[in-house]
Each structure stands twice: as C-alpha cells, then as structure tokens.
Amino acid sequence: MASPRVVGPPVVRPLGEVTAHRISPTDTVRLAVLSGPAQGSPTTVVFEVWEPGGSQPPNSHPASTETFVVLAGHGRAHSDGHTRPIGPGDVLVLPPGSVHRIVNTSDTERLYTITVMAPDDGFAALIERGPAVALDPADLAVLRGATGG
C-alpha cells in the first residue's frame, strides 16, 4: 500500500522579501528566485533583470526547458546559431540542450523577464550561490505590474 501523500501549507512570499543574485560578481543580469525547490517545487520561477546592454554568457541546460516571458524592454535571443528579437509580450522557449544567451539591446532601458526552468536541475541553487544584490524600486514596480500588485 502506498504511503499517504503529505501536503504542506501554501507558500506566500511578499515581493519585498525576495532577494536577487548575480551568478558571478561581474554579471550584468540579476536573478530573483520566486519559487523553486526551497519552496517545494520541482520547477523554478525567476524574475530576471538585464542592465542596459547587459547579457549573460552562452549557457545550456541539458535536462531543462527554459521559458522566458518578456515583461518590459527589448533584446535579442541567440540560440544554436539562430537570433530572434524579443520584446514585451513575447514568450521565448529554449529546448533542453540549446546553447543560448539573451542580450539587452537597449543602451538606456532594462530588460525584464519572468523565467521558468523546468525541471529546476540545480538552477535555483546556482543562482542563490551568487552574490546577493537588491531589486530597486523600478524593478519591483515592473514585477508588481506583472503580478497585478
């Protein structure tokens, strides 16, 4: 007979308590884990902020699909030799194993996304090992706008 499933209470995290990180100290992208393994989820949801002109190095997730929902700003998505412009309202889906990077094409505006990594496959831990940095009022305004808050 199977063991009964233990269900815990829902997790509520006020946005003001969410901390962002840079994966490495010189990165131009800040990532704030909204939910992931620490909250009991096998999938990680992240709020990402690219500084003007910012990008992350080419990277890949062998076992995970990475989906970006662009909230504000404009950029270019590079994946396995393909380049696509991205902007508000776009949904970018990167399959497992793709080598990719996103570049903020603006010299003055930040690029914001909600990113879903499914499954997490260590992504939240990678982010949270990096140096902590603040989300500023402009970042929180974009995130609150995306959540209707």
UniProtKB/TrEMBL annotation:
<feature type="domain" description="Cupin type-2">
    <location>
        <begin position="48"/>
        <end position="111"/>
    </location>
</feature>
<keyword id="KW-0479">Metal-binding</keyword>
<dbReference type="InterPro" id="IPR051610">
    <property type="entry name" value="GPI/OXD"/>
</dbReference>
<dbReference type="GO" id="GO:0046872">
    <property type="term" value="F:metal ion binding"/>
</dbReference>
<dbReference type="InterPro" id="IPR014710">
    <property type="entry name" value="RmlC-like_jellyroll"/>
</dbReference>
<dbReference type="InterPro" id="IPR011051">
    <property type="entry name" value="RmlC_Cupin_sf"/>
</dbReference>
<dbReference type="Pfam" id="PF07883">
    <property type="entry name" value="Cupin_2"/>
</dbReference>
<protein>
    <submittedName>
        <fullName>Cupin domain-containing protein</fullName>
    </submittedName>
</protein>
<dbReference type="InterPro" id="IPR013096">
    <property type="entry name" value="Cupin_2"/>
</dbReference>
